[in-house]
Design a protein that fits this description.
The structure is a homodimer. Chain A has 10 helices and no strands. Chain A is globular. Chain A binds a DNA duplex through helix 1 and helix 3.
Chain lengths: ~220, ~220
Amino acid sequence: MDMMATAGAEKNDRTTRIQEINRKVILDAALEVFSVYGFRGTTIDQIAEKAGMSKPNLLYYFKRKQDIYASVLEETLEEWLRPLHELNPLGDPVEELRRYISFKLHMSAKKPEASRLFANEILHGAPAIQNFLKTSLKKLVDEKADVIRQWVSQGKLAPIDPYHLIFMIWATTQHYSDFDVQVRAILGNQVDRPGFHEQTAQAVLSLILNGVKVR
Amino acid sequence: MDMMATAGAEKNDRTTRIQEINRKVILDAALEVFSVYGFRGTTIDQIAEKAGMSKPNLLYYFKRKQDIYASVLEETLEEWLRPLHELNPLGDPVEELRRYISFKLHMSAKKPEASRLFANEILHGAPAIQNFLKTSLKKLVDEKADVIRQWVSQGKLAPIDPYHLIFMIWATTQHYSDFDVQVRAILGNQVDRPGFHEQTAQAVLSLILNGVKVR
DNA sequence: TTAAAACTTGACCAGTCGGTAAAAACTCAA
DNA sequence: TTGAGTTTTTACCGACTGGTCAAGTTTTAA
């Protein structure tokens, strides 16, 4: 499997209003279903039902199951990585990291499906986005690792490995969406109490930032 | 789906030598396959082939696919949680955490299949081990969270939330097995260099422990 | 108004997969 | 050696699922 462009509808390559609407409806439904059941665990019928249309109709917009999957991934990837893009080399390091972590936690809470979709894809060897990981993602991370390394060499951060720091931030923030059931099993229904998200952010921030500040 | 006992072979409930061997062969094969493809993504034929026997023969030992899956999970769970059990309330807090983190990282590197198996199960809502999570696991974590809380109140650790600390340790250590492809895509083949595992351990340890030490 | 293009659907097909049936092959204690 | 119990295999079934087809309905541009 490999990342590929969205298959258009027949003959003409113009995108009609109906196409625009239905593609979006399908991709929204697909995200919901794929993120819960994974690629193999998802049936086209499930997506079609959630999208409120028949299977052949759905297949009119996306010729194969993989096309839907690749499109959902593509759509969500950019949004998911934007916060890292915004890590500002000129800002205050601790403040920048605080912003980044807060935002990632916020995304995890607000859109856990996206996180789970990736987690599942990567867990299964990233068949559809391997190339993306090795090019775009690597480039972005290398860039930001450089930023962090400079912060360190300027004495603004403790001498930490930037890559492992980034991995730790990813792992920790996404844990709360990917392993939601486990978190719930252990913390019980306090997870649903109003202030929980803020408490979590507070705890995670102080843990990571303390490990990163100069002493 | 729910956790269930291993289905024995027919009539007599005595476990023969052949049964013992074949059950183990099957469970080893099953761990390999399930951890890569997940429950739905795995076919009984795949497991049977890896185990070197025919599908009906495999089904002679485990009546249904779910039984194999449940058995593999059950078998691996205990081993996976043992290090947390060994967190010693009487030891030096930072040293105990160092040991725990090191051991988890070591397990992630040595037996990534186990980690991936759980990650996959939990990611999909933990249908087979929900009950385990809510009872055994919760009890264990509550216990150890208490230990950490006491360390904090004795002034031996910075004032951190014990649950979020545990989550962070889990998330970070398992990241290296669960998201192996992503780590590889970003770090390249340095991952396979001899000292890599030690470097990672060093980086992760200093990050987490710095966040935890009293200042 | 109209006809071409776009959209939708019911019927269906072929491959896959979990699981069964029944009989053959093997093991082992007496 | 023998036969009861255990293990293995061949053949097969029915449900599911990804995807196709052809015919119908709706939309849209002229």
